[in-house]
Fold this protein.
Amino acid sequence: MSVWAVLAAAGSGDRLGADRPKAFARLGDEPLLAQSLKRLDDSDWVDSIVVAAPPGWEEPAILLAEELGCSKVSACVTGGATRGESVARALAEVPEDAAVVLVHDAARPLLSDEVIERLLTALNDGWDGALPGLPLVDTIKRVDDEDRVVETLNRDELRAVQTPQAFVASVLRDAYANGDVAVASDCSSLVETRGGRVKVVEGDPKLSKITDVGDLERLGALL
Ligand code: CTP
Ligand code: MG
């Protein structure tokens, strides 16, 4: 069973506000992208990696992979205007015979092998897709356009989801070929729309996403 990883690293990182795309902002001594590259490359579960790099940053991404000795990187594509378009471009480089595709955000650097194992176990159990998720700690309200509370949601039914998201390759391809890729905020939503069965497995608090400078400092301390 061949497992391909798509690493979405093509965002500009507007909210981080660095002088370079977020994937190349410093986390510890290295560009942020280095963590997910190394962790995917080191994982015995992952066979090959396709990176979506920001326009103009394809070469630095390839050089970084070489410097780190990441032998599984098979292609680096230029990302698109949205995350969905970046993933679609990378997915086009995944060969037809791939069994599973794991889509991961470079903005979540602290990926562990245990999470990958939980995702692949769910696919092995027959799910079309699997994603890591965590229970919510806060009470969640739905509001209208005046911020008037409309509803208190049942927290027990809610999960905050992370990446990587893992899918049977044919299911993900079908979802990308037929879905509204440009507006989808994650891959799972495209698969859900097509009727795919997606399982939430236990996530990892360390997999939180780097959005602003405070996140870089917080996760940098956990390296
Ligand atoms: N991403 C991508 N291509 C895009 C936009 C986002 O590959 N056109 C990737 C980012 O590199 C990141 C992930 O999708 O790993 C999640 O996106 P986000 O955290 O929003 O990162 P940015 O879009 O870079 O940040 P911002 O929204 O602050 O500009
Ligand atoms: Mg963004």
Notes: The domain at 3-220 is CATH 3.90.550.10 (Spore Coat Polysaccharide Biosynthesis Protein SpsA; Chain A). The longest helix spans residues 113-124. The longest strand covers residues 129-135.
